[in-house]
Write a structure and sequence with these properties.
Blueprint: H1 2-7, H2 11-21, H3 29-36, H4 40-58, H5 62-70
């Protein structure tokens, strides 16, 4: 589900997800911005957009609903 969703995202949002899922979730925004070659403000905007899209798309996925019910 995540792969198909990510495939339709703009490159910057896909890059954000790749960095985030690489175990860099505790990475400071400044470092994330450096890796992405973006201003720090843009990283915050990307985060908000990506999380909103993920919630909207994955929240309706049956596999995700089943997983959430099991934890």
């Amino acid at each position: 589900a995540l792969r198909s969703l990510a495939a339709g995202l703009p490159e910057a949002e896909r890059l954000y997800i790749r960095i985030l899922l690489s175990g860099a979730d505790d990475l400071p925004a400044r470092e994330m911005a450096r890796l992405m070659q973006q201003p720090v403000e843009e990283v915050y905007r990307l985060r908000q957009r990506v999380l909103k899209k993920l919630k909207a798309e994955l929240g309706n996925n049956d596999a995700v609903k089943n997983w959430l019910a099991s934890v």
